[in-house]
Write a sequence for this structure.
């Protein structure tokens, strides 16, 4: 017997720089993840996928506008013209010698460089993670696939490349539009008007492309993308040249013309898209209700989509506010407390003020819901733990009471994750209510202004609203800075890197079919490699695929991709397995039906070891735990429960009681070896010839 190991953890926790940079891509990862949490596998007319891709495009636009806001709006328009702002800042003073049009054109290069950086990261990750090409043909649109067994399911290279070109076009088009409006204001000559129409047309054209399928032929798609790239480069070069040659720019006090309206417009579009995504999701869930209750009540797609918008707003607001705070030397101006005239206004758009206030409100309410969920579920979780302890240790002596209590606490804590669903649904409701601020964004009314309008005072309620909003800004900033610190710790600490990687396993398991700048899908490389290796080993004899934790998810995906000629020689052993407890409930479109298909393909040569103390793994087909059967009696033999700990008393040959194993290890237990022997005896001798 030959024993081999596949070390896939380096794909998510490998290079320190890659792990740290992944945290900065969190909004894009959430945007890409949203479509995979839909309630049904089919996506009629590609509607839900199209809406999610539009929302993902708005995230790219939001990040681009944030960089435009820092460079062109805050630095070029609101700081450099004021002596007190640029004083003792030689890195800014040289810009005052440039005409406003040239200055904005130079500063517009920075968001374009940022887009090029995202392009480079996406292309590099494609070469590193998706460079292992499977032999089966590719499906035309991966997000439309109804089964993980479809050939080429994990090959998203062509779709990601297609989306990457479109997103760069969107971002560059928004830079061009912002630049042209900034240098022209309301006075545009024929050339400026034509260029603005071309830039706006480029943005709208990219929006339409997000809804269209990828062209079937490789040559056709490459020619189209080359043409798109030439259009983007041409419009951008002409816009930069026009701005640099514009000498008379109408200068107004405050923000750069058109910028605040652009930011508010993006927020409004995101609000409309979230409402549409929620409506489509709810309608399809009611039409095709899942057999088991999903973890997020079937609202996984709109919830995670809303979360991606909130996180993106936190990132962009932190960037803009922290740069503004640096430029105005510690002041936090708003309409109630403006900066001194010599310093310049240095005001971020109203949308970022509302984002700060909404973020603080959501954080407080979600924290309250989390605490209430844990408190109200404590008795239920303790009762479940008590039943398990009574079943496993009916004859425990009185001296083992402290040990029994520790086991009860461990079992109760291991089921905390199941109780956080209401908290996440509450977050979605709060996020949806926050969409009411979209109307105020569009008319440019901030929290302090509306407080002054309601109270009729400039100093009482309005000042309180200003301080509360300031607190929201700092809370959001501290959270984002904490995330950056975590990224730095991931760079320095292997343990922190592994922790980040565990969280990334859920988000980067699925192909990138919505946002091309999301962290790469590790399964796009791991599954084809495993399929090739298992097929090669099966040609020589029997193969037992053994997978722990997320490795069992990869093992299942591998089995679903194996050819019918290989399957009779393959069995599967999973332990600490989250296939049903997390994946089937979190991704209902790929839930119980997929698990039954997996068992049927293996002809039920599958054993799953699990413990009640395991906070991640659990049973797959055990009906006593709310898992539906597949209608096949053989499914009942899949799950093998392990008592943990093995005893609550001290063995005479030892000095301490057996440890509580929880999620690790399994492979050192006698049940593991027994399961391997059991699976070896289930192979059909006729199928091995």
């Amino acid at each position: 017997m030959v024993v081999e190991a596949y070390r896939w953890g380096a794909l998510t926790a490998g290079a320190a720089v890659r792990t740290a940079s992944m945290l900065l891509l969190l909004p894009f990862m959430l945007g890409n993840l949203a479509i995979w949490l839909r309630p049904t596998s089919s996506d009629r007319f590609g509607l839900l996928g199209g809406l999610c891709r539009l929302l993902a495009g708005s995230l790219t636009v939001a990040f681009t506008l944030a960089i435009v806001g820092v460079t062109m709006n805050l630095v070029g328009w609101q700081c450099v013209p004021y002596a007190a702002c640029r004083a003792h800042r030689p890195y800014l003073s040289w810009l005052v010698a440039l005409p406003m049009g040239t200055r904005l054109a130079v500063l517009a290069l920075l968001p374009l460089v940022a887009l090029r950086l995202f392009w480079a990261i996406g292309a590099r990750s494609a070469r590193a993670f998706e460079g292992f090409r499977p032999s089966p043909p590719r499906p035309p649109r991966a997000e439309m696939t109804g089964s993980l067994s479809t050939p080429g399911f994990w090959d998203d290279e062509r779709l990601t490349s297609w989306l990457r070109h479109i997103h760069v076009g969107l971002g560059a088009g928004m830079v061009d539009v912002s630049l042209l409006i900034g240098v022209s204001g309301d006075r545009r000559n024929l050339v400026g008007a034509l260029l603005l129409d071309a830039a706006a047309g480029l943005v709208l054209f990219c929006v339409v492309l997000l809804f269209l399928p990828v062209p079937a032929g490789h040559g056709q798609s490459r020619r189209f993308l080359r043409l798109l790239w030439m259009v983007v480069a041409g419009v951008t070069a002409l816009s930069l040249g026009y701005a640099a040659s514009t000498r008379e720019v109408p200068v107004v006090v405050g923000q750069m013309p058109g910028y605040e309206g652009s930011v508010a417009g993006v927020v409004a579009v995101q609000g409309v898209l979230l409402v549409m995504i929620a409506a489509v999701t709810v309608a399809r869930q009611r039409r095709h209700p899942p057999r088991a209750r999903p973890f997020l009540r079937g609202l996984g797609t709109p919830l995670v989509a809303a979360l991606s918008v909130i996180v993106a707003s936190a990132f962009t607001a932190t960037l803009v506010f922290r740069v503004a705070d640096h430029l105005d030397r510690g002041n936090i101006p708003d309409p109630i407390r403006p900066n001194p005239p010599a310093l310049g206004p240095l005001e971020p758009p109203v949308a970022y003020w509302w984002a700060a206030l909404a973020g603080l409100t959501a954080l407080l309410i979600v924290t309250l819901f989390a605490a209430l969920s844990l408190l109200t579920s404590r008795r239920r979780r303790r009762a479940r733990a008590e039943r398990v302890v009574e079943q496993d240790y009916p004859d425990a002596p009185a001296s083992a009471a402290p040990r029994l209590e520790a086991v009860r606490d461990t079992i109760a804590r291991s089921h905390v994750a199941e109780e956080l669903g209401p908290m996440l649904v509450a977050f979605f409701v709060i996020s949806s209510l926050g969409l009411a601020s979209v109307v105020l964004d569009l008319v440019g009314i901030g929290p302090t202004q509306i407080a002054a309008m309601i109270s009729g005072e400039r100093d009482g309620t309005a000042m309180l609203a200003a301080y509360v909003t300031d607190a929201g800004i700092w809370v959001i900033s501290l959270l984002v800075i904490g995330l950056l610190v975590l990224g730095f710790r991931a760079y320095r600490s292997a343990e922190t890197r592994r922790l980040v990687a565990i969280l990334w396993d859920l988000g980067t398991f699925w192909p990138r079919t919505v946002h091309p700048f999301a962290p790469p899908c590790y399964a796009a490389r791991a599954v084809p490699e495993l399929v090739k290796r298992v097929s090669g080993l099966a040609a020589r004899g029997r193969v037992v695929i053994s997978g722990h934790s997320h490795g069992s998810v990869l093992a299942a995906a591998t089995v679903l991709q194996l050819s019918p000629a290989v399957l009779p020689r393959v069995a599967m052993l999973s332990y600490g397995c989250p296939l049903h407890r997390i994946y089937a409930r979190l991704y209902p479109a790929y839930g119980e039906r997929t698990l039954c298909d997996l068992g049927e393909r293996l002809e039920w040569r599958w054993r799953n070891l699990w413990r009640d103390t395991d906070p991640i793994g659990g049973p797959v087909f055990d009906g006593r735990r709310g898992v539906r059967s597949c209608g096949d009696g053989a499914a009942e033999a899949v799950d093998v429960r392990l008592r943990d700990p093995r005893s609550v008393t001290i063995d005479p040959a030892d000095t301490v009681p057996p440890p509580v194993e929880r999620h690790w290890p399994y492979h050192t237990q006698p049940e593991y070896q027994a399961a391997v022997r059991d699976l070896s005896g289930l192979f059909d001798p006729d199928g091995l010839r």
Strands lie at 543-548, 570-575, 606-610, 639-641. Residues 42 and 146 are 6 Å apart (CA to CA).
